[in-house]
Amino acid sequence: MKFFYNLERKDNFEYIVLRVEENNLSGTGAILPIRKNGENYKIFMGVIEEYRSIVEKLHCEDVFVITGILEEHFPNHPKVKFAIQAAVLELFSKKYKLDITKLLGGLKSTKNELCGERLFPEYLGDVFHAKYYPETKKETNTTFVLTKYPNNEMDTILSALSSNYEYLEVISWRELL
Question: Which SUPFAM superfamilies does the UniProt record give (predicted)?
C-alpha cells in the first residue's frame, strides 16, 4: 500500500492530510493539531514517519488490525492511528464497494444537543472502538463530537460513527483552535 502525508494550511493554521493508495483507489484521513492540548503538526509528522514503513507493508484488508499493529510498534498516538485507519477504511470500502454508513453506522436518530461527557472519536485511536463505545459505556451519557475538517476530510466516517450515539455536537475545526 502506498502511503502519503502532506502538511496543509487553511486560514494560517496547519493540519495533516494522510492518503493511502492501492490499485488506483485511495483513502484519506486527517489530523488537526490542537495547540491548547499541547499538540502541533511537528509531533504528528514524526509519529507518522515512525509508522510509515509499517503502513506501506500492509494491505487495506488489515484495516481491522492496523491500530493494534501501530500501537505495538509506537504506543500512545491515538489521533495518528485513527487518521491512518480512517484512510485505510475508506480505501477498503472502495475496493470492496461497501457503504461506510452501513459498515459503521448505527440506528439512532441522533439529537443535536449536549448531554454528558463529550467524546472526540479521534482520541480513542480506533474507528471500531468509536463505533462500539456507546455499548461499553451504557451507564454514561456521551455526546459524539463530529469535527468538520477544513476540506471535509473523514466526514463520511465521522458522520456514520455519529449515528451510534444518542447525542451529537457538530463543530468546525476553527472552534478547536
Answer: Enolase N-terminal domain-like
Going by C-alpha positions, the residue among 16, 30, 22 that lies closest to residue 3 is: 22
Whether this model's pTM surpasses 0.70: yes
* Cell digits of residue 55: 503502513
Q: How many other C-beta atoms can be found within 10 angstroms of the C-beta atom of residue 17?
A: 20
pLDDT band at 139 (very low <50, low <70, confident <90, very high): confident
Over residues 110-135, the pLDDT tens digits come to 888 888 899 999 999 999 999 999 99
> 57, exposed or middle or buried, with CB in 10 Å at 0-12, 13-18, 19+?
exposed
Sorted by where each starts, the structural domains of the chain and their CATH numbers stand as 2-95 (3.30.390.10), 100-176 (no CATH)
